[in-house]
């Protein structure tokens, strides 16, 4: 195992040196974009440091509980930081700051959509989830229902969400590294894929969590410094900041008012629902609640995570509006055509250079890379867990597989998911990342969340209702997205969309909930009656934690 680890680590280090090699062998690339030695140095330090963490975690990962949930021994502060790291992804740091730079006030919709909804949802489900589950959210959904059909459906939903989200992250990572280091898109995507497989295969949840914690601390520290420097530029006066942004931006004072991004109220509600409930249906987020000792620790984790996420989005508001003045008005950040170099998604990176010079630019570039890397590791682990724990150990082996065989299958699944993510990342290189991310949240809100919520809070849910509800949510979310304006008009080039809204969550969630309810109330089979009678025992365990899975070690 050590030999394999060293070989893969050398491969990762070799790939991480690709920027240097690419710049040396491609003078045109190097001359068209100066080599960022600060970014490369910090990038290499981060890679080596996280590989050392993976080696440490590998020595402490012995059982299935260690591999899937870090032994359930994380502290609430550690878990809260890791959850915050999952939530403040590259899409938040780069995407929302870019949206504020472009749309002003309306960029807050994406930040507030997540922030306003998910603590309420997760405070409701976090404790019950921890008391009822062991490794995956399918443990909870199938608690009193038929294991085989429910686990297969849950695994299908988990894999669909995890792989689609992985593709979006891989495309984003490839483009970011390609821009920052002048390397090829192929080597950038391969580097992310190899590191992701290394973290998960050898370190499991423990390595994945610590990579996420380090990244969260670095991102919060870096964004705090950026916000401080922006405010110091305006004499620590938010009023002067917003007035300067309104004066500089082409839309003037309109950027301080809502209504410029999503004008249709139905579409706006649907977008908000997708962000709120989609977040609570992401499998790699739900797995985080099994990494602490009990329900009380899970509740504390949400409390810490909420504070960190709220603080981050407060800083992003300053970063976005500060960039309008400090980057938008500076011609050195624009190309010959007058557009932002690298596109608007690079606005936070440019602001880092404006407030902290090349050294801080290197730091933020490395943090942006770490942000993507940490999220893809969590996604890969959740997908691998669905294959090894839900499909292999529970469905195929009916619970007779040993822990060693289950972990081995999980590592093979991680390798397969890593290869698949690289291939799909290359195939979807030209695809719109925002569309892929929207697809993920809409599917998660429609496939995973309705059956998870109903299984915990409604006595009447039956196996038939859970399976049909999940499948109906999956098909309706994908179908409405294809028929909506994003795909039907913008990609397939039709004149008008067959479905008028870009955000389908309002409708696909309703279909999922409605299907699950209808099929459950119409099910009068003996199995359905037995499943309803088992709800009382499930309710007692969910509220008391009696017989819940225990933590095996502390970290």
Descriptive notes:
There is one protein chain. This protein is mainly α and 555 residues long. The protein has a domain at 36-54 and 75-443: Sodium/glucose cotransporter (Up-down Bundle). Helix content is 76%, strand content 0%. The protein is built from 23 helices and no strands. It has helices at 2-16, 18-25, 27-32, 37-60, 64-69, 76-87, 90-103, 108-132, 137-141, 147-181, 185-233, 238-248, 265-279, 283-286, 295-326, 347-396, 403-427, 433-457, 463-483, 485-489, 505-521, 526-533, 535-544. The radius of gyration is 23 Å and the shape is globular. The two termini are 23 Å apart. Mean pLDDT is 83; it is low at 7-32.
CATH class of the domain at 36-54 and 75-443: Mainly Alpha
Number of strands: 0
Strand content: under 5%
Note the main sheet.
Answer: none
> How would you spell out the order of helices and strands?
HHHHHHHHHHHHHHHHHHHHHHH
| CATH topology term of the domain at 36-54 and 75-443 | Sodium/glucose cotransporter
Give the N-to-C terminal Cα separation. Answer: 23 Å
Which descriptors would you attach to this protein?
0% strand; 23 helices; 555 residues; Sodium/glucose cotransporter; globular; 76% helix
């Amino acid at each position: 195992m050590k030999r394999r680890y060293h070989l893969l680590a050398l491969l990762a280090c070799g790939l991480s040196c690709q920027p240097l090699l690419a710049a040396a062998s491609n003078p045109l690339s190097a001359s068209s974009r100066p080599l960022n030695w600060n970014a490369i140095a910090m990038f290499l330090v981060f890679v080596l440091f996280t590989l050392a963490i993976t080696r440490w975690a590998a020595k402490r990962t012995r059982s299935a509980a260690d591999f899937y949930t870090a032994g359930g021994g994380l502290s609430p502060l550690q878990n809260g930081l890791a959850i915050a790291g999952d939530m403040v992804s590259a899409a938040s740091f780069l995407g929302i700051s870019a949206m504020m730079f472009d749309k002003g006030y309306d960029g807050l919709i994406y930040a507030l959509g997540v922030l306003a909804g998910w603590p309420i949802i997760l405070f409701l489900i976090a404790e019950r989830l921890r008391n009822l589950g062991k490794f995956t959210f399918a443990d909870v959904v199938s608690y009193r229902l038929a294991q085989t059909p429910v686990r297969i459906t849950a695994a299908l939903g988990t894999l669909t969400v995890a792989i689609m989200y992985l593709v979006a992250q891989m495309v984003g990572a490839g483009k970011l590294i390609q821009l920052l280091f002048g390397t090829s898109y192929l080597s950038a995507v391969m580097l992310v894929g190899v590191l992701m497989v290394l973290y998960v295969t050898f370190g499991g949840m423990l390595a994945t969590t610590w990579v996420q914690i380090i990244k969260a601390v670095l991102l919060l520290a870096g964004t705090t410094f950026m916000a401080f420097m922006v405010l110091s530029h305006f004499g620590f006066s938010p009023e002067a900041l917003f007035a300067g942004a309104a004066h500089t931006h082409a839309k003037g004072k309109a950027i301080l008012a809502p209504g410029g991004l999503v004008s249709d109220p139905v579409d706006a509600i649907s977008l908000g629902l997708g962000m709120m409930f989609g977040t609570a249906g992401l499998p790699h987020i739900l797995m985080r609640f099994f990494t602490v000792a009990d329900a009380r620790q899970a509740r504390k984790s949400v409390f810490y995570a909420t504070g960190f996420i709220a603080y981050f989005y407060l800083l992003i508001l300053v970063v976005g509006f500060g960039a309008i003045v400090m980057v938008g008005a500076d011609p050195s950040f624009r190309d010959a055509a007058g557009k932002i170099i690298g596109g608007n998604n690079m606005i936070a990176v440019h602001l880092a250079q404006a407030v902290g010079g090349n050294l801080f630019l290197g730091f933020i570039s490395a943090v942006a890379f770490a942000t993507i890397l940490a999220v893809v590791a969590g996604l890969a682990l959740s997908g691998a867990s669905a294959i090894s724990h839900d499909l292999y150990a529970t469905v195929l082996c009916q619970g007779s597989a040993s822990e060693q065989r289950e972990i081995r299958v999980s590592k093979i699944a991680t390798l397969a998911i890593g290869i698949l993510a690289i291939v799909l990342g290359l195939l979807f290189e030209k695809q719109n990342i925002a569309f892929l991310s929207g697809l993920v949240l809409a599917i998660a809100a429609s496939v995973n969340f309705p059956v998870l919520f109903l299984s915990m809070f409604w006595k009447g849910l039956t196996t038939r209702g859970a399976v049909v509800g999940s499948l109906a949510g999956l098909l309706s979310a994908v179908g409405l997205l294809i028929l909506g304006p994003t795909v039907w008009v913008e990609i397939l080039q039709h004149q008008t969309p067959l479905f008028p809204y870009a955000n389908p969550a309002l409708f696909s969630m309703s279909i999922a909930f409605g299907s699950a309810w209808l099929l459950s109330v119409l099910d009068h089979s003996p199995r359905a009656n037995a499943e309803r009678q088992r709800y009382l025992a499930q309710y007692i365990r969910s509220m008391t934690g009696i017989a819940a899975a225990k933590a095996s070690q502390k970290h």
